[in-house]
């Protein structure tokens, strides 16, 4: 599905006028501080339930207000057998309407799908798979395991939406287990109860993660093969579930009781999962150049899009401010791959975009271009 209409109220500096978007490419340009990132942030807010730029909701509400609203309409997007040049005609009307409003003073959130109130953010997220590529995304390679876990779990959720419930249950049991570990006098019998619940959840959850990782890996290998880049030779991506799965997690926890008690938290389990990226046995963060690391992240993001596109789901990619991060060759490669995947794409830039430069020797796909000024998007 693709977001074809967006309307916000009290979202950063954005004007409240409704804006219509293409299910294909959308190019947003404007001066510094005009509101380009805010527009992408509002789209992501619908699909993620939070900002991708800041953790405090307060920062996103327009100054002087306490309640924001984001409304979006989705159409069925570009189907895989559709000629992309006819994308605009290929739209089949509104498939879903999503709404989120947040009152930061009352700390209340209201979610709506097709006019009905829903309780869980995943009800919104499953309709709008939003993938952000901004300068912060490159931490997937350079940063800690948490970033890679988030990257994998985003895909796991969109392949298998029931994953979010499993994950929440697992988080709850982990935090109860941690509390028990932190108690002065260790209650061994209570801990065993948590261990058995945690172990069962962990095995199920890791099965799902492992299965989706395999799909991701196959898509990634296919993307690499098309690229034919010698620097990626010998590159290995491995899923680490958070413990040695040849042993039961419950056994591992029992044999590390003292260590966990000293640390005061759970040291093994799905909360420690990672995607290990290695070349010649060493982490790529130590061997790849900064540019190669960035390209690797882009390829991983494309592979995510490919997994979902093979399942008939269209990802909405938000490319915020990446001109300074990627050279022209890589920007063209990214645009081509996203076009091939028939994703919906939003790209921000300060300069007026030149479609000839963006798509290189290919014909540009259907796109809409917007000039952003004082929070208002005006189509050209
Ligand atoms: N809560 C808020 N309420 C009102 N305005 C805000 C709020 N937060 C930020 N702004 C303002 O909104 C404007 C748009 O910021 P935004 O980051 O979207 O700009 P941009 O076009 O992406 O800029 P750049 O090219 O510099 O990245 C800025 O002038 C900023 O000061």
TrEMBL record:
Family annotation (Pfam families): SMC_N (PF02463)
Residues that coordinate or bind ATP: 30-37
Any single biological process term in GO: double-strand break repair
- InterPro entries registered for this protein in UniProt: DNA-binding_RecF, DNA-binding_RecF_CS, P-loop_NTPase, RecF/RecN/SMC_N, RecF_2
Q: Where is the signal peptide?
A: none
The answer, when asked if GTP-binding is one of the entry's keywords, is no
> Its principal location?
cytoplasm
Annotated function? The RecF protein is involved in DNA metabolism; it is required for DNA replication and normal SOS inducibility. RecF binds preferentially to single-stranded, linear DNA. It also seems to bind ATP.
Q: What is this protein called?
A: DNA replication and repair protein RecF
Q: Its encoding gene is what?
A: recF
């Amino acid at each position: 599905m693709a977001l074809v209409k967006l309307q916000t109220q009290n979202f950063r500096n954005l004007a409240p006028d409704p804006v219509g978007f293409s299910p294909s490419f959308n190019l947003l340009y404007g001066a510094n501080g005009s509101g380009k990132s805010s527009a992408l942030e509002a789209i992501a807010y619908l699909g993620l339930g939070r900002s991708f730029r800041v953790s405090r909701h307060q920062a996103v509400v327009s100054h002087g207000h306490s309640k924001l609203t984001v409304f979006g309409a989705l159409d069925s997007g570009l189907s895989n057998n559709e000629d992309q040049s006819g994308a605009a005609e290929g739209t089949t009307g509104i498939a879903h309407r999503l709404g989120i409003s947040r009152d930061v003073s009352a700390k209340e959130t209201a979610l709506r799908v097709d006019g009905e109130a829903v309780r869980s953010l995943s009800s919104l997220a499953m309709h709008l798979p939003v993938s952000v590529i901004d300068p912060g995304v490159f931490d997937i390679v350079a940063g800690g395991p948490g970033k890679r876990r988030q990257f994998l779990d985003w895909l796991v959720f969109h392949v298998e939406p029931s994953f979010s419930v499993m994950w929440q249950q697992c988080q709850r049991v982990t935090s109860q287990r941690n509390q028990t570990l932190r108690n002065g006098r260790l209650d061994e019998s209570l801990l065993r109860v948590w261990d058995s619940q945690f172990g069962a959840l962990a095995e199920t959850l890791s099965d799902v993660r492992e299965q989706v990782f395999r799909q991701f890996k196959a898509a990634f290998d296919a993307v690499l093969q098309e690229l034919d880049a010698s620097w990626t030779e010998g590159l290995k991506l491995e899923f680490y579930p958070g413990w040695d799965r040849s042993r039961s997690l419950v056994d591992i926890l029992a044999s590390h009781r003292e260590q966990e008690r000293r640390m005061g938290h759970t040291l093994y389990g799905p909360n420690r999962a990672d995607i290990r990226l290695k070349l010649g046995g060493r982490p790529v963060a130590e061997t790849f150049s900064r540019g190669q690391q960035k390209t690797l992240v882009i390829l991983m993001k494309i592979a995510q899009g490919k997994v979902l596109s093979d399942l008939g789901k269209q990802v909405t990619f938000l490319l915020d401010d990446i001109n300074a991060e990627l050279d022209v060759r890589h920007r063209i490669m990214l645009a081509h791959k996203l076009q091939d995947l028939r994703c919906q794409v939003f790209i921000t830039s300060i300069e007026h975009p030149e479609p000839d430069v963006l798509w290189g020797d290919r014909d540009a796909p259907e796109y809409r271009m917007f000039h952003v000024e004082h929070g208002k998007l005006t189509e050209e």
